[in-house]
Each structure stands twice: as structure tokens, then as C-alpha cells.
Amino acid sequence: PGCVNHITVFFPAADCDAPLASALPRSSFSSSSELSSSHGPGFSRLNRRDGAGGWTPLVSNKYQWLQIDLGERMEVTAVATQGGYGSSDWVTSYLLMFSDGGRNWKQYRREESIWGFPGNTNADSVVHYRLQPPFEARFLRFLPLAWNPRGRIGMRIEVYGCAYKSEVVYFDGQSALLYTLDKKPLKPIRDVISLKFKAMQSNGILLHREGQHGNHITLELIKGKLVFFLNSGNAKLPSTIAPVTLTLGSLLDDQHWHSVLIELLDTQVNFTVDKHTHHFQAKGDSSYLDLNFEISFGGIPTPGRSRAFTRKSFHGCLENLYYNGVDVTELAKKHKPQILMMGNVSFSCPQPQTVPVTFLSSRSYLALPGNSGEDKVSVTFQFRTWNRAGHLLFGELRRGSGSFVLFLKDGKLKLSLFQPGQSPRNVTAGAGLNDGQWHSVSFSAKWSHMNVVVDDDTAVQPLVAVLIDSGDTYYFGGCLDNSSGSGCKSPLGGFQGCLRLITIGDKAVDPILVQQGALGSFRDLQIDSCGITDRCLPSYCEHGGECSQSWDTFSCDCLGTGYTGETCHSSLYEQSCEAHKHRGNPSGLYYIDADGSGPLGPFLVYCNMTADAAWTVVRHGGPDAVTLRGAPSGHPRSAVSFAYAADAGQLRASVNLAERCEQRLALRCGTARRPDSRDGTPLSWWVGRTNETHTYWGGSLPDAQKCTCGLEGNCIDSQYYCNCDAGRNEWTSDTIVLSQKEHLPVTQIVMTDAGRPRSEAAYTLGPLLCHGDNFILHFPAFHGELTADVCFFFKTTVSSGQYSYLIFLAPTEVTFSFDVGNGPCEVTVQSPTPFNDNQWHHVRAERNVKGASLQVDQLPQKMQPAPADGHVRLQLNSQLFIGGTATRQRGFLGCIRSLQLNGVALDLEERATVTPGVEPGCAGHCSTYGHLCRNGGRCREKRRGVTCDCAFSAYDGPFCSNGKCDQGAGYRESNIQIKNLVLWHFQAGHIRSSVNPLSYETGIISKNYYFKKQLLKIFRKCPKEIHQMKKHLLISNNSESLRHLKAAGADPDTRRAATSGFTGCLSAVRFGRAAPLKAALRPSGTSRVTVRGHVAPMARCAAGAASGSPARELAPRLAGGAGRSGPADEGEPLVNADRRDSAVIGGNKALNDLVLVIIALDNDTIT
């Protein structure tokens, strides 16, 4: 099953925009204070000039508010504001709050993290703001946040909307409704349940319906989250199978209305809470819809017991409860026979009288009078927060008898009592209290003990018998700046969260009196509202990153996801093997992420780096070989499926990104059948990744139905297009290359028989092989509202310019700029060296809800955090400009390649052909990547990269590095083993040895130079390989037979060494620009090298080879021929490979063999 989360936008009715406040009496307006009777709230109606021309409070601060009572719940769709008439008093930004009963206010959020509304810039202009989505409320409050600094707060307002009708039913936690459905012969095509709910508690059943075999659907509120349980109800399955659960919403026990929509259509389930939707596809058939004709709301009644419930029932109100268009509440109010009411069910929703208090910052505090003079301390309250630490309560005892502090630390509640002359007494209770849920706290201290109760967890600490004399003031949330108490010196900081139901001693605290200034004092509080918000709903963590939060922010744990960044957006892996090759990485196992920061995850492939291409090898998990034997005509002889290490989406992205893909099928057959029956019906076929059937068997022409030999015209029987079609009584073979990449990879091969019972065949399907990066793609619509990234390579010689997405270039700076509505934000990376050096530079910029980051090459990444409360959605609706803007100012002069937006490559070349002033292609890759070609290898330009020409190097491989002693290399084809005497004739033309010394991997040996003098140097560099040497090395300047060498000035030891020949290993032999050893191992070319004696390529010189046994092949042949999927020796994947040449390539470690040879030199010939 799969789930998709998306945002649902609600639009109000087209005619729901009538002014609601203008016709209200003055008594419907109230405020926190007023400057004078003529500045009262009754004068705050839009465009009115009576009184002083608007409302102005006595003091202009952030604790002032203007309130409207609409008389009844109305649907509110828009608001408008104006300053005080003819004055310098206006509000530049404000909060909008709403409530049903004038208590427990809720803030309206414009976006996920936008609280404030834009206000006015003068006194008389009107600023309208349409609310999307609208809300229903009776009371509205406007809370000024900022105002004209040269004036005061001044407001005139209007509210727009229409009447709102609803039917409400109230459940007290011990009641329910049972609705009996009409038993119609035909079941409805779909079931639709819609309702709104207001919860008084955090747990309870909202609805339940079940069937005969344990199948059921249940909607339940669990810890403030709404959970929809769906049991498939298959009677054949064991009852232990857990039901499917869909969870949406958070903090839904806030005593405000929330909407629910459930749609059941066959096996499709749509579950919506407020503006968030899960689309769920259930497995199997729709048997879960085979339910009884009863559905209960508010609880699950026990049959036969009218008021007994098996699980916790719902305490709260349901509004506009509909089942398939039937108003269930109206049926209940009219006492229709379809409805059975159990318990105390009423049809009005009581308004909560609880007054919560929000501590907005770590400096917030609430000071309340203590129960002074009593011989005990007793405090109770409830709190909710996301923070793991913070002060909750502090108080000093009278007469200097000590102090106490109650605080959160690591999600646990701790109480410390400080008394003179005694060590602090500590008590700890509760755990995980920073989960955003309401938790009850009771604290008391008296005479000989103190205790703390958190929910159901009680902790008691005995005390030395001493008088506890309660102090005068208790501080909730924090302390005064000049407080000197022991508990206020802690570095934990003040509490951020919500408190409610505070009692001190036996007296309940009324926060409204605090708000009015009649009780205690406070700082930075929001009274009569709990402003907690779930910053992990919706979660901005991508690719499975785990979201966690505090009061102010959230963070993403990307461990194990394969992605990194603030929101786990950026992939840790390259997109292809071609990208690994550009970084100089050797062959090996790598994770690649074909769509970059897109939704597809990384997967493991083998990268085979060859001189011409970087092959991506994707193995399948099917059999290595499939054997077929004769069967009756038309019956399947074999139907084999092949699964891959990557899923369908990953394969599609990888194939689409590649320039070419192929897959080889090696077929051996004896007395085989033809591919078609006599009537032309195909008797064999294969299935590609799109589940389409294909009957062609090779080449690039899907309709050819030919094997490779048929395309090349060299089949053993010219009448047929495949060797196996000849039907000979002998074993033949075919190699089939499938190269239509839109059909690859092969997922199934089916072969039937034409009625030859003794026929036999065997086939092997190779891995999927792809190479090259194909950036020929269309321009997508660039959507980066919440997260977006752009990456590309550039090179230039000019000092400034503009690329795309507002990325600017200066000689030593790259700047990334954007604006989501909070003002311009810029991130700049500075370099110690200029960027206009005609070298390729890689740029990656990312913007998400947490901020922006920019990285250029390997320079340190720069980051710019986003504002805590600001716009988060970047909505772009213009064309994408690359290299400049529509005004063509500060245009870029240079080259750009591999441009990707959100992991999707753009077709720059195609657009360049139709854009004036822009040309496709860009030469000069070797200026940046030429250093990858080593040991004399030459960099050659390709259309989309470089290749290393190793013709003039003694080394081999994709980077001309195979065979180097200090680092080693992988597939070392320039390695041979010599037994006794080997004679080479290398015709060097007119190259003179006096200026072309003979070199090996540790030094240079010129003519007439005795090897013993270099022996110590070689031992130091290659001590392991030096043990392979059996004889000494002699260099001479005469061309006679080696066994009769007469070197000028040779001593007896030299002459004895020359008569025995050499047994050992050679590698990386070079003479000037010539590589005789490399040429000897490739006799198929036009080499002027002849070899006499036994020469064998060796993978590991130190291991040697048994006499007469063939040498083991080092490199698995991954890019040609069919065989086992994947490399022969895999090893561990190279997740973050070093950019230097690694000693481990493809799982083989190359031993670095000593260069030893006996050669005679003259002026024209090397032997």
C-alpha cells in the first residue's frame, strides 16, 4: 500500500463576502483599554468618522486588543483594516484570533509559519486580506504587533462573510449514538463520512463500524492525533494480523473545531483532517466494506448493555455529522427510529471556561502571590511544551528559610529544595514530558517531606523536620532579571509552552485578572490562548528523515536516509557512474542516486571505469543460467522473472539519464526450435520494465526479430537470422544485444517449444549496462515552494555575470539570492583564488524552510537561516532565465553545463540552438579534468567530457594509472611473468637510446647501467614485490644474443647473470615515448614488438602461477559478453571514494611488480 500526503485548499462560497461588523451595535465591540471615551472600541467600524475616528488604547504596547462579537457563529472569509481618521495612528501589522465563546482564543495562520497580517501605511487607506481557508467563529480579536512609530495604535476594521448553519451533538464521554443504515439490496458505490469535532479530552472513539468476521473501520482520537483503523476483514487470514492505521493531525484536543472527511471507494481510501489528506490503496479486494448495517458515533457500545463501552468514549462535540449525505444529528434530534441514543446526549456544545497562558519566550514569566504565612507550599497546574528543559516554578520561603525550583530537564520534571546549612533535596518524576501533551503537576512541601506528582507518577523526598514557611510570590516560567534566588541562576532558561488550571494553596488563579492588571504581574505572555504549534506537521523532513522539534524550531535526523542538509534534501551520492569518473574515482561498487534530490532513493551499482566510458552495471537476482529442454508444442519450456537491485522508478531514472544502455543474452542451443511457429505466432518473447511484451531479439530495431549474427550477416545458416534457428544436431550459440533503452531492463523471458522433444538450450542474461549522461531532457516547470535546489558547472574568464535562480558571480565570489516575501536573502561564498580562471567550477545552492545554503567546489559551505516566523513558500510563475534576466542586465559570458533543478536535468543544448547569443557545446574540459590523466596519458576532448589516451604511457586504465607502485591500480594489463629467457625485438626506428632512457616504475636505467646500483631504491619502494626477483638485471649496448652477451667493461658477475636469463615479473616498462611491454601484451595492433619465450599476463605477481597453468584474469568482463550479473569480486561499496587513484578497484588489490628485463641496445634497435 502507498500513501500520499497533500494539501487541500478550501474556497469559500462566491457570495460569502457580506460586511458583518458595520451593522453591529457599539456594544458588540470591546477592547483591552481606550485612550478616552471618544477613542473607544465602538468607534472602530471601517470608514466611520464618529468619535475620534477609530479605536486607540490607553497605552500602545503588544498586550492591547480590539474584539468583535458577531452575535452567533459566522463564516468569516476576509478582513479589512484602516487607521484612525485624520491622525498619525495606524497599525502596520497585527494578529487575528477567533473563538466560539470568547475564551480560549486561537490564532489564524496565513501560512505554516506566518502569524502576522500586513497592516496599513497611513491613516485612511483600506487594506483587505482574503482568508484561505475561511473559518467559523462568533468572536474575533485584532492584536496589534507594530504601529506607526510617530503615532499610536489606531484601528478601524471590517469583517466579511456570511451566516453559518450547523447541527451539533454533545457527548460527555459516557454516551453514544447508534445509527442503523437502510438495508438496501444494492450497496452504495462509495461510503462518505464527513463531520467536524471539538475535543475536550485527548482520547476517545469518534465512530466505529464492524462486520461479521472481525473487519471494521474505526476513527479514534489518540493523544490529540486522529487515527483511522482499517481492518481488511478477510476471514481466511489469521486474526493476529494488525489493521492498517492512518494517522493525521496533531494537538487536536485544543477545544477548537477540526474537520474530517472519509471516502471509501472499493480499495481506495481518502482520509482528510483539516487541510491534510492521506490517499491509501488497500491490498486485496474490498471485503472490508462488507460491514454490518450499524455505525456508532461517540463510542463503541457493548451489545445488550445500553451504557457500557468497550473503549474510551469521546468527550466533546460533533458538528454537521453526515453519512452518505444523511444528516445523522437531525435524525437524532427528531428521535427517528434509525437512531438509538445511549447515555447523556445533548444538542448544544458547551463553551470551555479554561483560560490557558502561553509563555512565548525564555524571558517570559508570570508572578503570582503565594499562600504567605502558611506552613506548607502547595501548587498544582497543567502544562504542555516541546522543550526538553526550562524553569516552571520558583519561589523563596519566608524568613530566609530557603527556596525551591521546579524545572524540566531532559524531558523529566525535577524539584529542588534549598535550605540553609543543608545540601539541596531533589525529587524527579515523569519522563518524556516534552511531547506536546497536557501533563498534570502537583507539588507540595510540609514539615518532614515534599512530594511531586506528574500525571500518575509520584515521587516523595523525606525532609529534616523543619518549618516550611511559604513565601509571598511564586514565579512561573522564569524569574525577574534582578532575582537572586538559587533556582534563578540555573542556565536552563525559562519555560516556553502553555500553562492552565493553576492553583496556589486552595485558590484557583484567574488569568483574566492578571491580564486586567488586578492580579500579579507578567512579561511576554499571551493570556487566554495556548499558542503551541506542531512544527513537524506537516513534516518538512524529506526522504524519510525524522522530524523533532522545540518550541521555536524543528530539526531533521537524516541518519540512514542517504540524504543530508537541514531537511534531508540533498543526496549524499552521485547521480551516475559517469559523475564518479569525472571525480577521478576508480572502478568499484557505489551507491548512485539517479534523480538527485528527487523522491527516488539511492541504490547500489557497480561502476566499471574503462578508457572510453564509465559503465553502470545493475545486477539482477535471477538465475545465472537457465537450461531448457523439449516440451509439447506451444507449452512453455521456461518463464523466468528477473528482479533487480533497484526498483522500477530507480531503473527508469537511471536509464533515462544514460546516453546508451544495453543488456546481453547469451544463448547456447542444440537441435533448437525456430522463434516462430508455422503460422507466424512468436514462440518466445521477453518483458521490459514497462511490462510490455517484446518479440525482437537484438540490435536497435525492435521489429527486426534478428539475433546479432542476423544483423551482421554471419549466421551459420544464411536462411536464418539466429544460429539457434538452424536446428542443427550440434551446439551453437548466439549473442543477443538488446539496446532499445526505453524497453530495458529485461524483467522476464518466456520460451515455448515448437514440438521438438529432444531439443535443448541454455541462456544467460547479463546485467543492465549503461554509460554516459544524457542531458537531452525537456524543461520542467520549476516548483520549489518549500524546498528547491539548483546545481551546475560553470567556467568563464570574465569577472561578473548572472546564471539562474539569481546566482551572481564576482571575480572571487558567488552569491545566491532569493526572496519568499520576507525581504531579499543572500548567501555568498568567497574564494581565495578567482573563479574566472577558465576552469570548471561546481555550484550547488539549496533553499528550504530552514534557510539557504551555497557551496562552490570544495570550499566551505555557507548557510543563512530563515526567519523564525516568516513566509516559507516560494511561488514562482515566470519563465526560467539562464545566463541573465529578462532585462538582459549583467549577462553571463562563459560555459554552463549539467544544470539541474531539484535533481531534474535541463536540456541546455536544445535550447541553445534556438536562443540568440547562445551556442551548444563547450570545449575545454581538459583544462579542468586533464589532471586525471596520469603517467604521460593525454587528455582528449569528448562531446560531454574527456578521455585519457594512454597510447604513449607505459600505464593503462581509464586514467593511465594502472601499474603505479606507490598507489597501485586495478585491472593491470601491463603485467607479465617471465620464465627463464624471453627475447623481445622492439624496432624503435631512429630513436637513440642515449636520449631515451629505459624506465620502470621506480626509476630510470640508462644503457651500460648495472641494476645492482638501483636495487636498494627498489627495495625501499616495493619491498613485497622485490622478492619475486630471481636473477640480476643487466643493461648492455650490444645487440648479440642474450646468452652470448659481451658488454663492454662487464664484470664476471654481470656475465654470469646474463647467461641464466630472468624469472620474475615486469610492469610499466617505458622507453622514451614507447611502451614495449604494453605493446607486447596487445599483439593484435600494429606493434613492432616480437616476443619469444613464455609470457603470461598476471593479476598478482607475488602469488605467481603454477607451472603450465594459465594466469587468472584480473578484470571481470562487465561491459561485454553475457555472464553473471555484477563484478566477479565485489567487496564493499565505495560510498565516498577518495578522488585519488585508489588501490582497491572492483574488489581486487593490485600488487606492484618490479620491472626486470634483459635488453641489449644499439643505435637503432632495442631487443
From TrEMBL:
Record's GO cellular component terms: membrane
Membrane topology: Single-pass type I membrane protein
Location within or outside the cell: Membrane
Entry-linked PANTHER family: CONTACTIN-ASSOCIATED PROTEIN-LIKE 3-RELATED, PIKACHURIN-LIKE PROTEIN
Main location: membrane
CDD domains, per the entry: EGF_CA (cd00054), FA58C (cd00057), LamG (cd00110)
Gene this chain is encoded by: CNTNAP3
Domain (Laminin G): residue spans on this chain: 168-349, 355-530, 750-922
Family of the protein in this entry: Belongs to the neurexin family.
GO terms (BP aspect): cell adhesion
Top-level taxon in the UniProt lineage: Eukaryota
Residue span(s) of domain Fibrinogen C-terminal: 568-620
Disulfide bonds: C895-C922
Region (Disordered): 1112-1135
Taxonomic source organism: Pan troglodytes (Chimpanzee)
Span of domain EGF-like: 532-569, 923-961
One matching Pfam family: Laminin_G_2
NCBIfam families: GGGWT_bact
Sorted UniProt keywords: Cell adhesion, Disulfide bond, EGF-like domain, Glycoprotein, Membrane, Repeat, Signal, Transmembrane, Transmembrane helix
Domain F5/8 type C residue range list: 16-162
The protein's name in its UniProt record: Contactin associated protein family member 3
